[in-house]
Amino acid sequence: MIYPIGIQNFESLRKDRYFYIDKTVMIHRLVHTGRYYFLSRPRRFGKSLLLSTLEAYFEGKRDLFKGLALERLETEWTCRPVLHLDLNIERYDASDSLRNILNRNLVAWEGLYGRDSSEVSLSLRFAGVIRRACERTGHRVAILVDEYDKPMLQSIGNKALQEEFRAMLKPFYGVLKTMDGYIKFALLTGVTKFGKVSVFSDLNNLEDISMDESYVSLCGITEGEIHENLEEELRELAAAQKLSYEDTCARLRALYDGYHFVENTEGIYNPFSLLNTFKRRKFGSYWFETGTPTYLVELLRRNRYRLEDMARAVTNVDTLNSIYGDEDPLPVIYQSGYLTIKGYNPRFKTYRLGFPNEEVEEGFMKFLVPYYTPLGKDETPFAIELVTSRNG
Length: 392
What we know:
alpha/beta, five-stranded parallel beta sheet, three-stranded antiparallel beta sheet, 10% strand, AAA family ATPase, AAA-ATPase-like_dom
Protein backbone atom coordinates (compact mmCIF):
# COMPACT_ATOMS: atom_id res chain seq x y z
CA MET A 1 0.00 0.00 0.00
CA ILE A 2 1.21 3.50 -0.84
CA TYR A 3 0.23 6.03 1.82
CA PRO A 4 -0.62 9.56 0.60
CA ILE A 5 1.57 11.42 3.07
CA GLY A 6 2.00 14.95 1.79
CA ILE A 7 -0.16 14.23 -1.29
CA GLN A 8 -2.76 16.96 -1.64
CA ASN A 9 -3.73 16.54 -5.28
CA PHE A 10 -6.63 14.16 -5.83
CA GLU A 11 -5.81 13.44 -9.47
CA SER A 12 -2.22 12.53 -8.60
CA LEU A 13 -3.42 10.42 -5.68
CA ARG A 14 -5.83 8.41 -7.80
CA LYS A 15 -3.63 7.99 -10.87
CA ASP A 16 -0.65 6.90 -8.78
CA ARG A 17 -2.86 4.53 -6.78
CA TYR A 18 -2.32 5.98 -3.35
CA PHE A 19 -4.45 4.82 -0.46
CA TYR A 20 -7.72 6.78 -0.19
CA ILE A 21 -10.62 6.55 2.23
CA ASP A 22 -13.81 7.29 0.33
CA LYS A 23 -15.37 10.57 1.54
CA THR A 24 -17.35 11.19 -1.63
CA VAL A 25 -20.79 10.44 -0.16
CA MET A 26 -20.37 13.53 2.00
CA ILE A 27 -18.95 15.50 -0.92
CA HIS A 28 -22.02 14.66 -3.03
CA ARG A 29 -24.32 15.69 -0.17
CA LEU A 30 -22.39 18.93 0.31
CA VAL A 31 -22.71 19.91 -3.34
CA HIS A 32 -26.37 18.95 -3.73
CA THR A 33 -27.79 20.43 -0.51
CA GLY A 34 -26.22 23.90 -0.42
CA ARG A 35 -24.00 26.39 -2.16
CA TYR A 36 -21.74 28.46 0.12
CA TYR A 37 -19.72 26.73 2.84
CA PHE A 38 -17.00 27.37 5.36
CA LEU A 39 -14.97 24.62 7.09
CA SER A 40 -12.46 25.02 9.89
CA ARG A 41 -10.11 22.13 10.68
CA PRO A 42 -6.58 21.84 12.15
CA ARG A 43 -3.57 21.77 9.86
CA ARG A 44 -2.74 18.50 8.06
CA PHE A 45 -6.28 17.18 8.41
CA GLY A 46 -6.90 16.88 4.67
CA LYS A 47 -8.50 20.22 3.81
CA SER A 48 -6.33 20.72 0.71
CA LEU A 49 -7.09 17.20 -0.54
CA LEU A 50 -10.81 17.85 0.00
CA LEU A 51 -10.66 20.96 -2.18
CA SER A 52 -8.65 19.13 -4.83
CA THR A 53 -11.27 16.35 -4.84
CA LEU A 54 -14.00 18.93 -5.33
CA GLU A 55 -11.99 20.51 -8.15
CA ALA A 56 -11.74 17.18 -9.97
CA TYR A 57 -15.45 16.60 -9.45
CA PHE A 58 -16.49 20.01 -10.82
CA GLU A 59 -14.16 19.56 -13.79
CA GLY A 60 -16.12 16.42 -14.66
CA LYS A 61 -13.20 13.99 -14.26
CA ARG A 62 -15.38 10.96 -13.76
CA ASP A 63 -12.59 8.44 -14.36
CA LEU A 64 -10.83 9.60 -11.17
CA PHE A 65 -13.86 8.52 -9.13
CA LYS A 66 -14.04 4.98 -10.47
CA GLY A 67 -14.97 2.64 -7.65
CA LEU A 68 -15.94 5.47 -5.30
CA ALA A 69 -19.45 6.29 -4.11
CA LEU A 70 -19.61 9.47 -6.19
CA GLU A 71 -19.32 7.48 -9.41
CA ARG A 72 -22.78 6.00 -8.87
CA LEU A 73 -24.32 8.98 -7.05
CA GLU A 74 -23.59 11.61 -9.70
CA THR A 75 -25.55 11.43 -12.94
CA GLU A 76 -24.59 14.65 -14.78
CA TRP A 77 -20.79 15.08 -14.49
CA THR A 78 -20.90 18.64 -15.80
CA CYS A 79 -17.52 20.21 -16.54
CA ARG A 80 -17.55 23.62 -14.85
CA PRO A 81 -14.99 26.41 -14.59
CA VAL A 82 -13.15 26.14 -11.26
CA LEU A 83 -11.38 29.05 -9.55
CA HIS A 84 -9.08 27.48 -6.96
CA LEU A 85 -7.27 29.98 -4.74
CA ASP A 86 -4.52 28.48 -2.57
CA LEU A 87 -3.21 30.92 0.04
CA ASN A 88 -0.95 28.28 1.55
CA ILE A 89 2.11 28.96 -0.57
CA GLU A 90 3.07 32.49 0.46
CA ARG A 91 4.75 34.00 3.52
CA TYR A 92 2.64 36.96 4.61
CA ASP A 93 5.15 39.30 6.21
CA ALA A 94 4.44 42.42 4.09
CA SER A 95 1.36 44.03 2.58
CA ASP A 96 2.53 43.23 -0.96
CA SER A 97 2.70 39.50 -0.22
CA LEU A 98 -1.09 39.09 -0.20
CA ARG A 99 -1.63 41.45 -3.11
CA ASN A 100 0.95 39.56 -5.16
CA ILE A 101 -0.62 36.14 -4.70
CA LEU A 102 -4.14 37.43 -5.43
CA ASN A 103 -2.85 39.22 -8.53
CA ARG A 104 -1.00 36.12 -9.73
CA ASN A 105 -4.16 34.02 -9.53
CA LEU A 106 -6.23 36.71 -11.22
CA VAL A 107 -3.71 36.97 -14.07
CA ALA A 108 -3.92 33.21 -14.61
CA TRP A 109 -7.73 33.23 -14.61
CA GLU A 110 -7.83 36.28 -16.89
CA GLY A 111 -5.61 34.37 -19.30
CA LEU A 112 -8.40 31.81 -19.56
CA TYR A 113 -11.47 34.03 -19.50
CA GLY A 114 -10.28 37.51 -20.50
CA ARG A 115 -10.06 40.87 -18.76
CA ASP A 116 -11.85 44.22 -18.99
CA SER A 117 -9.54 47.25 -18.74
CA SER A 118 -12.08 49.02 -16.52
CA GLU A 119 -11.55 46.38 -13.81
CA VAL A 120 -8.75 47.99 -11.83
CA SER A 121 -9.19 46.73 -8.26
CA LEU A 122 -8.65 43.13 -7.12
CA SER A 123 -12.33 42.70 -6.29
CA LEU A 124 -13.52 44.11 -9.63
CA ARG A 125 -11.14 41.81 -11.49
CA PHE A 126 -12.36 38.81 -9.46
CA ALA A 127 -15.99 39.66 -10.22
CA GLY A 128 -15.17 40.06 -13.91
CA VAL A 129 -13.45 36.67 -14.04
CA ILE A 130 -16.43 34.95 -12.41
CA ARG A 131 -18.90 36.56 -14.80
CA ARG A 132 -16.90 35.84 -17.96
CA ALA A 133 -16.09 32.27 -16.88
CA CYS A 134 -19.80 31.58 -16.55
CA GLU A 135 -20.77 33.36 -19.77
CA ARG A 136 -18.06 31.78 -21.91
CA THR A 137 -18.56 28.20 -20.69
CA GLY A 138 -22.31 28.31 -20.16
CA HIS A 139 -21.89 26.90 -16.66
CA ARG A 140 -21.83 28.52 -13.26
CA VAL A 141 -18.50 28.64 -11.48
CA ALA A 142 -17.09 26.62 -8.56
CA ILE A 143 -14.87 28.62 -6.20
CA LEU A 144 -12.48 26.91 -3.78
CA VAL A 145 -10.31 28.81 -1.30
CA ASP A 146 -7.60 26.95 0.64
CA GLU A 147 -6.33 28.41 3.96
CA TYR A 148 -8.28 31.65 3.68
CA ASP A 149 -6.93 32.72 7.10
CA LYS A 150 -3.19 32.26 6.60
CA PRO A 151 -2.46 35.98 5.95
CA MET A 152 -4.28 36.89 9.16
CA LEU A 153 -2.60 34.19 11.22
CA GLN A 154 0.89 35.04 10.06
CA SER A 155 0.39 38.71 10.90
CA ILE A 156 -0.70 38.17 14.51
CA GLY A 157 1.05 40.80 16.59
CA ASN A 158 1.17 43.30 13.71
CA LYS A 159 -2.15 45.15 13.88
CA ALA A 160 -1.30 47.52 11.04
CA LEU A 161 -0.53 44.64 8.67
CA GLN A 162 -3.61 42.75 9.78
CA GLU A 163 -5.75 45.77 9.01
CA GLU A 164 -4.23 45.99 5.52
CA PHE A 165 -4.94 42.32 4.90
CA ARG A 166 -8.47 42.66 6.25
CA ALA A 167 -9.16 45.67 4.04
CA MET A 168 -7.93 43.71 1.02
CA LEU A 169 -9.76 40.45 1.73
CA LYS A 170 -13.15 41.83 2.78
CA PRO A 171 -14.17 43.21 -0.65
CA PHE A 172 -12.44 40.30 -2.42
CA TYR A 173 -14.50 37.67 -0.59
CA GLY A 174 -17.55 39.93 -0.75
CA VAL A 175 -17.58 39.34 -4.51
CA LEU A 176 -18.98 35.85 -3.83
CA LYS A 177 -22.24 37.38 -2.65
CA THR A 178 -22.56 40.03 -5.34
CA MET A 179 -21.90 37.47 -8.09
CA ASP A 180 -24.30 34.89 -6.68
CA GLY A 181 -26.06 34.33 -10.00
CA TYR A 182 -22.83 33.16 -11.64
CA ILE A 183 -21.71 30.78 -8.87
CA LYS A 184 -22.68 27.12 -8.46
CA PHE A 185 -20.65 26.31 -5.35
CA ALA A 186 -18.07 27.85 -3.00
CA LEU A 187 -16.06 26.35 -0.14
CA LEU A 188 -13.57 28.30 1.95
CA THR A 189 -11.36 26.38 4.37
CA GLY A 190 -8.92 27.40 7.07
CA VAL A 191 -7.57 26.54 10.47
CA THR A 192 -9.41 29.26 12.37
CA LYS A 193 -12.57 31.33 12.15
CA PHE A 194 -10.36 34.37 12.18
CA GLY A 195 -12.40 36.47 9.83
CA LYS A 196 -15.87 35.04 10.19
CA VAL A 197 -17.11 38.46 11.27
CA SER A 198 -14.59 41.00 10.02
CA VAL A 199 -13.36 39.49 6.75
CA PHE A 200 -16.65 37.81 5.86
CA SER A 201 -19.04 40.49 7.07
CA ASP A 202 -20.15 41.09 3.47
CA LEU A 203 -20.62 37.34 2.92
CA ASN A 204 -23.29 36.45 5.46
CA ASN A 205 -24.65 33.57 3.41
CA LEU A 206 -21.76 31.23 4.25
CA GLU A 207 -22.91 28.00 5.92
CA ASP A 208 -20.41 27.02 8.61
CA ILE A 209 -20.12 23.22 8.69
CA SER A 210 -17.23 23.15 11.19
CA MET A 211 -19.57 21.94 13.96
CA ASP A 212 -22.09 20.17 11.73
CA GLU A 213 -22.57 16.54 12.79
CA SER A 214 -23.23 15.51 9.17
CA TYR A 215 -19.68 16.47 8.18
CA VAL A 216 -17.74 15.70 11.35
CA SER A 217 -15.60 13.10 9.51
CA LEU A 218 -15.28 14.93 6.18
CA CYS A 219 -11.62 15.53 7.10
CA GLY A 220 -9.80 13.04 9.33
CA ILE A 221 -10.32 9.32 9.89
CA THR A 222 -12.76 7.47 12.13
CA GLU A 223 -12.07 4.23 13.97
CA GLY A 224 -14.61 2.47 11.80
CA GLU A 225 -12.76 3.64 8.67
CA ILE A 226 -9.51 2.23 10.09
CA HIS A 227 -11.02 -1.23 10.58
CA GLU A 228 -12.80 -1.12 7.25
CA ASN A 229 -9.75 -0.06 5.22
CA LEU A 230 -6.61 -0.90 7.22
CA GLU A 231 -7.29 -4.16 9.03
CA GLU A 232 -4.35 -6.03 7.51
CA GLU A 233 -2.06 -3.06 8.15
CA LEU A 234 -3.19 -2.99 11.78
CA ARG A 235 -1.99 -6.55 12.24
CA GLU A 236 1.30 -5.77 10.51
CA LEU A 237 1.81 -2.80 12.84
CA ALA A 238 1.08 -5.01 15.84
CA ALA A 239 3.66 -7.56 14.70
CA ALA A 240 6.29 -4.86 14.08
CA GLN A 241 5.70 -3.40 17.55
CA LYS A 242 5.49 -6.84 19.20
CA LEU A 243 2.10 -5.96 20.62
CA SER A 244 -1.21 -7.76 20.57
CA TYR A 245 -3.83 -6.62 18.07
CA GLU A 246 -5.95 -5.24 20.91
CA ASP A 247 -3.05 -3.33 22.48
CA THR A 248 -2.10 -1.87 19.11
CA CYS A 249 -5.63 -0.56 18.58
CA ALA A 250 -5.63 0.89 22.09
CA ARG A 251 -2.26 2.57 21.53
CA LEU A 252 -3.41 4.14 18.26
CA ARG A 253 -6.56 5.37 19.98
CA ALA A 254 -4.65 6.91 22.89
CA LEU A 255 -2.10 8.63 20.66
CA TYR A 256 -4.09 9.92 17.69
CA ASP A 257 -7.86 9.66 18.31
CA GLY A 258 -9.97 12.03 20.38
CA TYR A 259 -10.76 15.00 18.16
CA HIS A 260 -14.39 15.98 18.71
CA PHE A 261 -15.62 18.85 16.55
CA VAL A 262 -19.21 18.39 17.71
CA GLU A 263 -20.49 17.24 21.10
CA ASN A 264 -21.51 13.60 21.53
CA THR A 265 -20.03 12.44 18.22
CA GLU A 266 -17.43 9.82 17.40
CA GLY A 267 -13.77 10.68 17.78
CA ILE A 268 -11.65 11.58 14.77
CA TYR A 269 -8.07 10.40 14.32
CA ASN A 270 -5.35 12.76 13.13
CA PRO A 271 -4.85 11.43 9.57
CA PHE A 272 -1.27 12.67 9.19
CA SER A 273 0.01 10.93 12.32
CA LEU A 274 -2.06 7.82 11.71
CA LEU A 275 -0.82 7.25 8.15
CA ASN A 276 2.77 7.97 9.15
CA THR A 277 2.45 5.33 11.87
CA PHE A 278 1.21 2.73 9.40
CA LYS A 279 3.88 3.63 6.85
CA ARG A 280 6.78 3.50 9.32
CA ARG A 281 5.21 0.83 11.54
CA LYS A 282 6.28 2.91 14.48
CA PHE A 283 4.45 5.25 16.86
CA GLY A 284 5.64 8.84 16.89
CA SER A 285 4.71 12.51 17.34
CA TYR A 286 4.44 13.07 13.60
CA TRP A 287 2.01 16.01 13.69
CA PHE A 288 4.19 18.04 16.05
CA GLU A 289 7.43 17.13 14.32
CA THR A 290 6.29 18.98 11.19
CA GLY A 291 6.78 22.25 13.07
CA THR A 292 5.12 24.55 15.56
CA PRO A 293 2.93 27.25 13.97
CA THR A 294 4.48 30.65 14.61
CA TYR A 295 1.07 32.19 15.22
CA LEU A 296 0.47 29.83 18.15
CA VAL A 297 3.85 30.65 19.67
CA GLU A 298 3.02 34.34 19.36
CA LEU A 299 -0.38 33.82 21.02
CA LEU A 300 1.14 31.96 23.94
CA ARG A 301 3.85 34.55 24.42
CA ARG A 302 1.40 37.44 24.35
CA ASN A 303 -1.23 35.92 26.62
CA ARG A 304 0.76 33.65 28.96
CA TYR A 305 -2.15 31.32 29.46
CA ARG A 306 -1.88 29.04 32.50
CA LEU A 307 -1.50 25.53 31.13
CA GLU A 308 -3.69 24.03 33.87
CA ASP A 309 -6.51 26.45 33.03
CA MET A 310 -6.23 26.05 29.27
CA ALA A 311 -6.33 22.25 29.35
CA ARG A 312 -9.51 22.22 31.46
CA ALA A 313 -11.31 25.23 30.03
CA VAL A 314 -15.10 25.47 30.12
CA THR A 315 -16.67 27.64 27.45
CA ASN A 316 -19.70 28.06 25.19
CA VAL A 317 -20.41 27.63 21.50
CA ASP A 318 -20.08 31.36 20.82
CA THR A 319 -16.48 31.26 22.04
CA LEU A 320 -15.66 28.12 20.05
CA ASN A 321 -17.05 29.78 16.93
CA SER A 322 -15.63 33.22 17.57
CA ILE A 323 -12.83 34.99 15.78
CA TYR A 324 -9.49 35.63 17.44
CA GLY A 325 -9.28 38.56 19.80
CA ASP A 326 -6.38 39.81 21.88
CA GLU A 327 -8.44 39.33 25.02
CA ASP A 328 -9.01 35.60 24.53
CA PRO A 329 -6.80 33.29 22.44
CA LEU A 330 -8.81 30.19 23.43
CA PRO A 331 -10.86 30.03 20.17
CA VAL A 332 -7.71 29.90 18.02
CA ILE A 333 -6.06 27.30 20.27
CA TYR A 334 -9.19 25.13 20.02
CA GLN A 335 -9.68 25.65 16.29
CA SER A 336 -6.00 24.84 15.66
CA GLY A 337 -6.47 21.38 17.14
CA TYR A 338 -4.54 21.73 20.40
CA LEU A 339 -7.75 21.46 22.42
CA THR A 340 -10.94 19.60 21.61
CA ILE A 341 -14.41 19.02 23.04
CA LYS A 342 -14.22 16.61 25.99
CA GLY A 343 -17.69 17.06 27.41
CA TYR A 344 -20.93 18.96 27.02
CA ASN A 345 -23.40 20.21 29.62
CA PRO A 346 -26.82 20.46 27.91
CA ARG A 347 -28.36 22.35 30.84
CA PHE A 348 -25.90 25.23 30.70
CA LYS A 349 -24.89 24.64 27.07
CA THR A 350 -21.21 24.70 27.96
CA TYR A 351 -18.29 22.73 26.56
CA ARG A 352 -15.42 21.26 28.55
CA LEU A 353 -12.17 21.32 26.58
CA GLY A 354 -8.99 19.31 26.90
CA PHE A 355 -6.11 17.82 24.95
CA PRO A 356 -7.48 15.44 22.29
CA ASN A 357 -4.87 12.73 22.80
CA GLU A 358 -1.42 11.84 24.11
CA GLU A 359 0.41 13.06 21.03
CA VAL A 360 -0.96 16.58 21.44
CA GLU A 361 -0.52 16.67 25.21
CA GLU A 362 3.06 15.40 25.14
CA GLY A 363 3.92 17.52 22.12
CA PHE A 364 2.50 20.60 23.78
CA MET A 365 4.70 20.01 26.82
CA LYS A 366 7.80 19.30 24.76
CA PHE A 367 7.57 21.83 21.95
CA LEU A 368 5.33 24.69 23.09
CA VAL A 369 5.61 25.17 26.84
CA PRO A 370 9.27 26.32 26.68
CA TYR A 371 8.24 29.19 24.40
CA TYR A 372 6.22 30.91 27.08
CA THR A 373 7.08 29.27 30.41
CA PRO A 374 10.45 30.32 31.90
CA LEU A 375 12.23 27.19 33.13
CA GLY A 376 14.85 27.07 35.83
CA LYS A 377 18.09 25.18 35.37
CA ASP A 378 16.70 22.09 37.05
CA GLU A 379 13.24 22.29 35.48
CA THR A 380 11.99 20.60 32.32
CA PRO A 381 8.72 20.51 30.42
CA PHE A 382 8.34 16.98 31.84
CA ALA A 383 8.41 18.40 35.36
CA ILE A 384 5.66 20.84 34.42
CA GLU A 385 3.66 17.93 33.02
CA LEU A 386 3.95 16.07 36.32
CA VAL A 387 2.72 19.09 38.25
CA THR A 388 -0.16 19.51 35.82
CA SER A 389 -1.10 15.85 36.18
CA ARG A 390 -1.07 16.03 39.96
CA ASN A 391 -3.21 19.14 39.92
CA GLY A 392 -5.64 17.46 37.54
